[in-house]
């Protein structure tokens, strides 16, 4: 087994100190590829979370009172530390999450980029001066921090989802309590350790870890605290809806990055090879465990068979194995629950008439490995058309014309990402307009970047992360009416 980074600490980070749970209970963290233990982290409860909230509250006055330039210097130092330790962070991520090392390296840079980006965006949190309704007054609008904020992050991107929340929140002057996913707390703790190393002030960034059963307890402690003014959550739509209902109690703000059901449309006028490459990365990146994965691949009838043959050949070249092994491009699924869900979706599709071209079963490597799979004849009668697969299964259907493709793509309550390939400029504008999603990839299967707004419409969420828009969600507007200025005599 690769060595864990020396700077990694396996306790929680609260108020600048490394602490265990009040109950002293711990949670084992395992390598999903082997089931081997990597160590253990505290199982925090309600009072531990309240202590983290208190530490964040105590830090807020100083942190929010600093200049944006001061905060930028801290965040830039944190980004540099991540880049200096990128290889350690990437190996750790592969060990606890399973993704191939090449993908983990890309994610570490993606994660660091949020600190670099928002360090600068914090300096541009401009307000406004509005033409006044009175001669003796001026109207000023400022953007202010919220106070203490919560972050709840998923296991599929153990570093980038942490920094995509923490960076804008902190740049705007908030202090954060973060609850990382139970499967991947180590990457978050490693990021906290780097915060400690570069001098992020105590209490500005706090991490509380816990298991599946602890998550509702930690979440409730955040929601119930009058000090926590916002929660940023990435995870399932079901949990996101519940969180929003619970936050209604004291009107805690939420931003929610939830489930997706992306259609990936290949029109007959597409650049065939480019579309093939795009769908491969969009479908098989992270073994299909992304919210923006191509969940339904729709190929125009005239090119359907040749596209399926070419994609099948590509899928058969994917090397499955431990993410640290050279040449591996697909790791295991995160856990048995994830594996069983994929199996159920494939079984349902087959029962309702889909055809397997390759894969369709657990991989010979054992554990939670699943074969790269190509299914055709997928229709809206099948569960796989409506649920996030979160596995390496390309579910392919066909369509006759543009109108049918758009109707099929929009036939879902989700609206995170949508993709299509076409070389017809009129069609590009028509279809980009018609897709009811927060993100549209045209002639690309990879849309993730810190400079663009990531987020969904419909049941895929509320709010945006990344870009100049991503910092606004972590602020509150204040209108100052400056009256009594008199008139020129
Ligand atoms: C996600 O799938 O949740 C995030 C994907 C990304 O940012 O690339």
Summarize the model shown.
By secondary structure, the protein is an alpha/beta fold.
Report the mean per-residue pLDDT as an integer.
Answer: 98
Q: Identify the overall geometry.
A: globular
Q: Count of helical segments?
A: 13
Radius of gyration: 23 Å
Strand residue percentage: 15-25%
User: Could you give the distance between the termini?
Assistant: 81 Å
- Heterogens: succinic acid
Uncertain spans: none
- What can be said about the biggest beta sheet? 7 strands, mixed
User: How would you classify the helix and strand content by structural class?
Assistant: alpha/beta
Helix % is 25-40%
Q: In which order are the strands of the major sheet placed?
A: 14-15-16-13-12-18-19
β-strand number: 22
List the helices and strands and how they pair.
Elements: E1 12-14, E2 17-19, E3 26-30, E4 37-42, H1 46-65, H2 68-84, H3 86-97, H4 101-121, E5 128-130, E6 138-145, E7 148-152, H5 160-171, E8 175-179, H6 185-198, E9 205-207, H7 215-224, E10 228-234, H8 237-247, E11 253-257, E12 262-266, H9 272-284, E13 294-300, H10 301-317, H11 336-351, E14 355-358, E15 373-376, E16 393-399, H12 402-409, E17 414-415, E18 417-421, H13 425-434, E19 439-442, E20 457-458, E21 461-462, E22 475-482
Parallel strand pairs: 7-8, 7-10, 8-9, 10-11, 12-13, 12-18, 13-16, 15-16, 18-19
Antiparallel strand pairs: 1-2, 3-4, 5-6, 6-22, 11-21, 14-15, 17-20
The protein binds succinic acid.
């Amino acid at each position: 087994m690769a060595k864990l980074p020396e700077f990694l600490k396996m306790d929680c980070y609260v108020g600048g100190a490394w602490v265990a749970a009040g109950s002293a209970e711990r949670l084992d963290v395992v390598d999903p590829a082997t089931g081997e233990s990597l160590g253990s982290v505290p199982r925090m409860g309600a009072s531990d979370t309240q202590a983290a909230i208190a530490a964040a509250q105590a830090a807020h006055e100083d942190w929010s009172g600093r200049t944006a330039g001061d905060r930028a210097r801290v965040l830039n130092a944190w980004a540099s530390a991540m880049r200096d330790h990128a290889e350690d962070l990437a190996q750790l991520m592969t060990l606890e999450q399973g993704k191939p090392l090449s993908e983990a390296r890309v994610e570490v840079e993606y994660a660091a980029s949020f600190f670099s980006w928002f360090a600068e965006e914090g300096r541009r949190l401009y307000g406004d001066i509005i033409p006044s309704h009175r001669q003796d007054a001026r109207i000023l609008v400022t953007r202010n921090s919220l106070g203490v904020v919560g972050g709840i992050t998923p296991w599929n991107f153990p570093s980038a989802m942490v920094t995509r929340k923490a960076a804008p929140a902190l740049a705007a002057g908030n202090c954060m309590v973060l609850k990382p996913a139970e499967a991947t707390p180590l990457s978050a703790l490693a990021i906290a350790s780097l915060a400690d190393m570069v001098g992020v002030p105590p209490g500005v960034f706090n991490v509380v870890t816990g298991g599946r059963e602890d998550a509702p307890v930690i979440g409730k402690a955040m929601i119930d605290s009058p000090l926590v003014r916002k929660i940023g959550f990435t995870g399932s739509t079901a949990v996101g809806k519940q969180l929003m209902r619970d936050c209604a109690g004291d009107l805690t703000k939420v931003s929610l990055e939830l489930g997706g059901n992306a259609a990936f449309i290949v029109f007959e006028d597409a650049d065939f090879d480019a579309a093939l490459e795009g769908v491969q990365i969009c479908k098989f990146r992270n073994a299909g465990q992304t919210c923006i994965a191509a969940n339904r691949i729709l190929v125009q009838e005239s090119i359907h068979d040749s596209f399926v043959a070419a994609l099948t050949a590509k899928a058969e070249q994917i090397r499955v194995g431990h993410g640290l092994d050279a040449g591996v491009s697909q790791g295991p699924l995160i856990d048995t629950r994830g594996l069983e869900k994929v199996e159920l979706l494939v079984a349902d599709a087959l029962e309702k008439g889909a055809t397997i071209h390759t894969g369709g079963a657990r991989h010979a490597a054992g554990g939670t490995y699943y074969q790269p799979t190509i299914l055709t004849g997928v229709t809206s009668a099948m569960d796989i058309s409506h649920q996030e697969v979160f596995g390496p299964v390309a579910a392919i259907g066909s369509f006759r014309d543009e109108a049918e493709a758009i109707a099929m793509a929009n036939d879902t309550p989700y609206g995170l990402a949508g993709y299509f390939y076409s070389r017809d400029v009129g069609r590009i504008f028509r279809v980009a307009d018609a897709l009811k999603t927060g993100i549209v990839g045209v002639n690309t299967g990879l849309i993730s970047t810190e400079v663009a707004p990531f987020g969904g419409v419909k049941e895929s969420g509320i709010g945006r992360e990344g870009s100049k828009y991503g910092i606004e969600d972590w602020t509150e507007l204040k209108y100052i009416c400056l009256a009594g200025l008199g008139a020129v005599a």
